[in-house]
Write a structure and sequence with these properties.
- The complex is a heterodimer of chains A (443) and B (111).
- With 443 residues, chain A is mostly helical.
- Chain A is built from 18 helices and no strands.
- The radius of gyration of chain A is 32 Å and the shape is elongated.
- The radius of gyration of chain B is 23 Å and the shape is elongated.
- Chain B has one domain.
- By secondary structure, chain B is mainly alpha-helical.
- Chain B has a two-stranded antiparallel sheet with strand order 1-2.
- The longest helix of chain B is centred in the middle third of the chain and has 46 residues.
- At the A-B interface, helix 10 of A face helix 1 of B.
- Chain B: One of its GO terms (biological process) is mitochondrial respiratory chain complex IV assembly.
- Chain B: InterPro entries: Cox20.
- Chain B: Keywords: Membrane, Mitochondrion, Mitochondrion inner membrane, Transmembrane, Transmembrane helix.
- Chain B: This is Cytochrome c oxidase assembly protein COX20, mitochondrial.
Chain lengths: 443, 111
């Protein structure tokens, strides 16, 4: 339903265009094509959405590529913003004087055939060596077409196999479910994060808990080894340096032994990081590709682009453009910040100096994400926001003792019995909490 | 490989290795296999030393096996192409003679 409304909307846009430009013969024919294909569209709407979508996007594409006529040395040289009627005249003039391609030749051919011929011909016009500048008339107001050329690493990322795979999957998911794009993005985020990152995070917590429990066992071994080293120094006249070296290697050996016995090397926890960061980059790159119709040469690029321009929600109707009210970008930053603060509140041990530095760095990064995300298309922003929101939920969920027992995470000494209440009491000691309460009471 | 000449040559021992067939792919497969093998071993056993050994071993093993397999199929194709070339030349020389008709009448089988 929503889709068909979108299409009607676009169709009206293109009709406006033809209305303004209907004086020249090319556009009279274009009108006839439009009429004919509206007929098709109406027929197709019940049967298959995709077909009608394709035909219409093709139409829009045609109406767009029909018009651009660049003229370096044409009889008429106009700016992009001159009235479209005028441009039409220049286009017709150019047609007769420069390109010399007879446009009204294939009138009697079948629809599809003549359409493709038309498209070919207009491409000739655009690519004519004399015409260095592509000028579009009337499509300026009706449609914005992104012109982005990526280079270097960005190009490699945008054209890499995983990114294209994610892009195709997103498109297929959207077209099979028929959901609007914003819902597709949010749902994909939730699905991907709950099937990939959530289990891995559970695994990470499992590893950390096991290592914590091993520390208790290790302290006994360390005591024993210390006693042995002391005996070696005092009774057997072993040099102190040598004894310390032996002790250190022995401690390391014992620790490795324990870790291998329990199969819980702390480095295994980093698997979360190594999947989450590439995943985040890949999905962001795929969404950006969809927004800027990249990589060039994809047949469905324009259709997806048009779908995205109307696939928004609430105040963000156009997912390709930036969020005018900056609500989504600010929520990205706030969610990230909240995540960091929650992790900070949940800590059981005192911070080392390095950890404090890291905390401030992460806070800075999450604030710095706000201006960055103000410049990216709002669908990427939406992905980031939903991903961060999921992160908060996940981190809170993983503290629950019930969830931890359910996932088989062993009980540790430092594990909390009721983490949420403890978090709240710790939150009360923070300055921002008191600040908020005071300002509330003053009102 | 011949049609794309815009890539940068990578000279190694006085030879552009990007022109050697199978070179790039065998290294790529080796690297992939070593990462998978090494990381997999680490995740299953928690033994970093063993994992790095296995990673190295899989790198060498998969690079060489991919290389051998790829070069074998490549040279097989080269031989076929050469035979085909020869046949085409023969056909051109016999064009318009009674022998051409004889050749054309032969069944199309891979001998």
């Amino acid at each position: 339903m929503l889709r068909s409304i979108n299409y009607n909307f676009y169709f009206q846009r293109s009709l406006n265009f033809t209305h303004a430009a209907s004086m020249c013969s090319v556009n009279v024919r274009l009108v006839s094509y439009l009429r004919r294909s509206t007929h098709n569209l109406n027929l197709n709407q019940g049967a298959s959405h995709i077909d009608s979508g394709n035909s219409l996007t093709y139409l829009i594409h045609m109406s767009k590529t029909m018009s651009p006529v660049a003229c370096k040395d044409s009889l008429f040289n106009f700016d992009r913003n001159t009235p479209s009627q005028f441009n039409t005249q220049s286009a017709t003039g150019l047609r007769s004087s420069h390109t010399g391609i007879n446009i009204s030749r294939n009138c009697s051919k079948p629809l599809i055939n003549s359409m493709s011929l038309l498209a070919n011909r207009t491409r000739y016009t655009v690519l004519h060596p004399k015409h260095f500048r592509v000028r579009q008339f009337s499509s300026e107001t009706t449609q914005y077409v992104p012109q982005v050329r990526l280079t270097g690493v960005w190009k490699d990322i945008s054209e890499s196999t995983p990114v294209e795979f994610v892009q195709d999957t997103l498109v297929t998911f959207q077209s099979t479910t028929g959901l609007p794009w914003w819902a597709t993005i949010v749902l994909t985020t939730v699905i991907v994060r709950s099937t990939l990152t959530l289990p891995l995070s559970l695994y990470q917590h499992y590893i950390i808990a096991k290592v914590q429990n091993l520390n208790i066992e290790m302290s006994d071994i360390v005591k024993k080894l210390q006693a042995e080293a002391n005996v070696a120094v005092s009774h057997y006249k072993c040099p102190e340096d040598h004894a310390r070296m032996l002790y250190n290697t022995k401690v390391k050996e014992k620790w490795d032994e324990l870790i291998q016995r329990e199969n819980c090397h702390p480095g295994k926890g980093y698997i979360v990081l190594w999947t989450q960061i590439p995943l985040w980059i890949t999905i962001s790159a795929a969404l950006r590709n969809l927004c800027f119709m990249l990589p060039p040469g994809r047949t469905d690029a324009e259709k997806n682009f048009l779908d995205l321009t109307t696939g928004g929600f609430g105040w963000v109707t156009n997912l390709v453009a930036i969020d005018q009210f900056c609500i989504v970008p600010i929520s990205v930053g706030l969610f990230n910040l909240a995540n960091i603060e929650i992790m900070n509140l949940l800590k059981t041990t005192e911070d080392t100096r390095l950890q404090k530095c890291l905390l401030y760095f992460l806070r800075f990064i999450s604030i710095a994400m706000i201006p960055i995300s103000m410049y990216v298309p709002s669908c990427m922003c939406l992905y980031w926001a939903s991903s961060s929101a999921f992160g908060i939920v996940q981190n809170l969920l993983l503290q629950s003792p019930k969830v931890r027992r359910l996932a088989g995470i062993p009980l540790t000494k430092t594990a909390r019995t009721n983490p949420y209440r403890e978090m709240y009491t710790k939150l009360k000691t923070k300055w921002y909490f008191n600040f908020m309460r005071k300002s509330n009471s003053r009102i | 490989m011949d049609e794309e000449d815009d890539h940068k040559p990578l000279m190694l021992f006085g030879r552009d290795v990007t022109r050697i067939p199978c070179f790039r792919n065998s290294f790529l497969s080796g690297i992939t296999c070593s990462i998978v093998g090494g990381l997999g071993t680490f995740m299953f056993t928690s033994k970093p030393k063993l994992a790095s050994h296995i990673g190295m071993a899989t790198f060498v093993g998969s690079t060489w096996s991919y290389w051998v397999y790829c070069r074998y199929t490549w040279s097989k194709q080269q031989i076929e192409v050469a035979r085909l070339q020869e046949l085409i030349e023969q056909h051109a020389t016999y064009a318009g003679t009674p022998k051409e008709k004889e050749i054309d009448r032969l069944p199309l089988v891979d001998a």
